[in-house]
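Question (not urgent): is this output format expected?
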Amino acid sequence: MRALASSRPARWIRLTAWPRIAAALARVWRVVAPVLTTVSGFGWAVLACTIVSLIAASVLGWRELLVIGFVLLAALLISVGFAIGRSAYAVRLDLALTRVVVGERAVGRIAVSNTSARSLLPARIELPVGSSYASFHLPRLAPQAEHDDLFGIPTQRRSVIVVGPVRSVRGDPLGLMRRELRWTDPVELYVHPKTVSLGGSSAGFLRDLEGIESRVLSDNDVSFHALREYVPGDDRRYIHWKTSARTGKLMVRQFEETRRSHLAVALSTNHSDYRDEEEFELAVSICGSLGVQALREEFDLTVLTQNSTLKSDTGRRLLDELSGVEQSERRESIVQLAKTTGSSVPNASVAFLLFGGTVTPAQLQASSVHIPLGVRVIAVSAQPGAPLTLRSIGDMTLLTVGDLTEFPLALRRANS
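Got this back:
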């Protein structure tokens, strides 16, 4: 019993000591971790060589190894002096435009000011731009002084480029120590695809009380067209009694059916539907042209790919989405895309299928089966350099477009 009683305080001490030890180790790690992350990979290699050299010198008695060890140790100690110290910067990252078209100039500015009451040593400023980064030399800054740099961003390719965050880098010339401090948030630059303006069209096939008049006649709507003789089954509410009394026959009103256009644009992102990158870029530009024009004319719009449905509530939002569209290795064919379009947008009036030069007529024939009846289907094959052609595959209209500037003409031919 006495041994059991004596073990209880020891157990209590162990139980209460471990949390304190863990808290102390955590505090030590918070202090040590920034120092450890400051040492570069090359710095760790030099430190390992230093330790090996000093141990080997003590074991083997070689003065040469001792000299090497002390030289490396001195280099490490000197490098620490380049990394320590505080930086009091105020950094601004500004882009002249956050949305540009492929090929347009995109420029930005970095402004760094010294907010402290003492001078700051020279440093290096790094700016990540997409997968690469730009480096700027920051000179010695006097108190309250400011230094700015202008930079350009390549926009030869459609993409969403993440610019930033701006970070200051301090370290020694040998690269043993590297201390990074982040100063700004990243900014997204949207490189939109090229688009072309299209002529308006009233080829809507859906009845809508607030839609667009068409040449199709209807027995009830809001756009009056003419009078015709009554036939059994007509709604008597539309009998025109004054004309009926004058002619001696029952006459009913006839209306022009009003319709509202709803465009469904299906862009294939399947890598196997294109011969090369240029075909895909042309298809994306055609998709953007169709979408922007539809929204400009206040038509309903749905844009789909094999991967997702793109946000298209505004033209800017659609072009932002298209900036990030990439080809994928998913093997969903143009037939599967047409099936998804037919099920997702059954109320579409016109459906566009966009793809490259590897899609065959047999695939297009199979695709048309999955589009609901009454929906006009226009397939567009993007083939840079190919002559503009128009042909029919069943009820589907097939356009071959070799240049974006030819697409408005191709669309007018398809609508004629």
